[in-house]
# Entry
Amino acid sequence: MTPVPVHLIVNGEAVHLTVPPNRVLLDLLREDLLLTGTKEGCGLGKCGACTVLLDGKPVHACLILALQADGCRVDTIEGMADKREGRLHPLQEAFVEKGAIQCGFCTPGMINTAKALLDENPDPDTEDIKQAIAGNLCRCTGYHKIVDAVSSCACRSHNKSNTRKADNHE
Amino acid sequence: MSEFDVVGKSVPQLAAREKATGDTRFVTDLVLPRMLHGRVLRSPHAHARIISIDTRKAAALPGVRAVVTHADTPKIKFGPRSEDWTIFAEDKARFHGDEIAAVAAVDPDTAEQALDLIQVEYEVLDHVVSPLEALEPGAPLVHEESPGNIAAEFNIEAGDIQKGFDRSHVIYADRFYTNQVYQAYMEPMAVLAETDLSGRVTLHTGTQIPNMMRMTYAKALGMAPENLRIVVPEYGGAFGGKMENNIHLVAAVLSQKAGLPVRLVNTRQEDFLAGNPRVPMYFDIKLGATKEGVLTAKDVRVVGGAGARLVYSQVIVSTACYRVDSLYRFKNVRARGITAYTHTVPTACYRGFGNSQSTFVLESAMDELAAALRIDPAELRMKNGVGPGETSVHGWKIGSSGLRECVEKATRAADWTRKKAEKKPFRGIGLACCNHVSGNRPFAREFDGGSAMVRVGRDGRVMVFHGESDMGQGQNTTYAQIAAETLGVPMAQVHVAQVDTDISPFGLGSFATRGTLMGGNGVMAAARKALEQLKEIAGDHLEADPGKIICKKGEFYDPDNPAQRMAFKEVASLATISRHGAPVVGTGFYKPPTQLPDPDTKKGNISPAYPFGCQIAEVEVDPDTGQVTVTRMAAAHDVGRAINPMATEGQIQGGIAQGLGWTLMEDMAYENGRLVNADFVDYIVPSAFDMPGVESILVEPVEPNGPYGAKGIGEPALNPTMAAITNAIYDATGVRITSLPVNPEQLLAKIREKQGSRC
# Structure
């Protein structure tokens, strides 16, 4: 297969690569750019570990060809924190503080999904959050602390009444 | 709670920030210069004779650096317990997924192409998947040297069951089945293997038992253990599933042959096919009680399916035979266990280790006895539950037991009495209890216990070295808390080293809910040894008796003269200088007061502490479809003292999620000997939508043998979930679930049968 050029904006930086046409976005990120924060959990779009944001929308990077992402903005977990300042994104901070991370393999995909949700709906309730993350599997936590972490971000920036909702969730 | 500065506080995992930013390097993320990508060719048949393997075309493909089969291995039979393993199939493939050959190539695509070029000629043979059928006369044999497919047998008896049943007023007997389920840790099994010029092999892999695995693997590779090194990076979950597995040895052989590092990562499908899922078991149980509700006798026959080789299934079956007997005040018990070879993937450890299977069975039977006796199921548990200071029928010395408190608190939280009386159609509530161990003396026969090294550098930075394994549950954080508390320094100053068999102590590993108690006691002992050395230095400088000096919040002082203080860092620096650069190192160990069970009676106190729990489930059953929804769970667990309450709660919630998946959703389905649902498309695990609200309650009787009073929580978090849910289904419908997972169609048919007979 003749390699083809692909142009992407990855975490705000222009990336120009030549890849085989069957290269999936996940392999481009992990193998070509060594952005290993994006995980492969199943390869079939069923676990959500590879979730990245494509023009702001959550997608399974294992199911998207790199070519399909040509010209798009791709945001991965590596682009979320302000590393030079040592400052995490509020969602990342919430996942840490609320105990939403155990083994952490699902975490990058989960956080990306949650970010897309909050970008679209800054004030989701528990059901909205569960709906949003239903495609992201976590085998460690039983999801409660993940839902709490996302809820806490909703209330912190937008809606104080959600604090109670989050507490009741337990 | 305030007696401690660090222990008992909910703190985030040490590695949480790196995990949140994607900086953590998991096994599947590791890259080395000139690293090759490995792939394994697996048997498509459950049972087949291998007539020939032709690897020439694969080896000739440009970019392929090694192709290996059984012929390229030392051909030594080995295994963690029973030497029925080879690295690759020799003359026969014995399960769908069995290792036949492997390749290493410069990139994954080339490796994939090379796999397709390996030609294997098979003669397909008859197979057997069910352990019961495997024991029938004339069943196809898995190993010729094991007639009748009997891999192991276990018998245990205490008291006189005949007398016990004779004085019973009610006896319940039935057959139960617990199925084969997959751990579904999010990171598939993976390994990065490298071989150096001297032939020394290093494996970077996520494993629960780095040190024990090394001994087994050294034998398989025909090398001295010192020529094999195992390093454990962060890894994505295990739940019992990441112990010995041929994938590691395949990578080792590939790297030996290629002379280059080789990364081998299971695809998710391969992980289903060739991981080590839960041991499926049949139980015939007979359980008796007097009319007052006092348990009189228990008799059980267990048949477990080992799959095609023994990993730990025989030990898991023996655990299923008797561990649960120490939950109640049994006097008369008997169990016979048979582990049968079958033509499936080798089965092994999955959270609960046989005790989860038998807890489902016993707690279902307890529910039946309660119904027959018209006694509240909670009361039946309170009446028979083992209490603190008691010795169980198998000689287990129960130190702390919060079992009754767990039942009281869970029933209160669930509003049990009111809801149990309510009897709304198709809604029900069910309760189940559990016990477990915190370490299992007979598992590694040489010793049990824990050890650690605590190194204090000139800068005061504390590094804890242990040989257990943080599989993602947060064990390193627990150890850091224990070390910080013992030394009297803030958490931020304490770090935990990656486990590396070249450096770390010989820890037995993370299984048997032993990490917190065994490893934690080891860390505490090591920290004390380091502290003693620092106190000597502080004593010199403060002109005080080192025996009187304490360290709190990073400062050494004599409580009688608290005005004069020295910072921990200052003392550490002075210590290092006075020793010409040598760091302060404390090495400590914990020897548990346990016994190897007597070989005949199996009596003996196998664990220094025993955790308990009680879970209550509420369910709704759809009268049209038979679909079961768990609407709420209350879970009270006796954890001794929770070192990190947030992490402990996380264990409970995660355990319930896995138990719920097992009860209602998960089943490894075989057709004609082939696993047909080896992916997350057809094998569904719980999502956020499937989880009910969970009220977690920590019951904290201080355990005399635990570090700061702590016991374990990993496995007990799941043990009672299955029966709590199925007992709730019984309450809702009158139908006893005897086989996992719940099949909605069968449940519906049984509900209709009951309704019909009532009309």
The beta strands of chain A are 4-10, 13-19, 51-54, 57-60, 73-75.
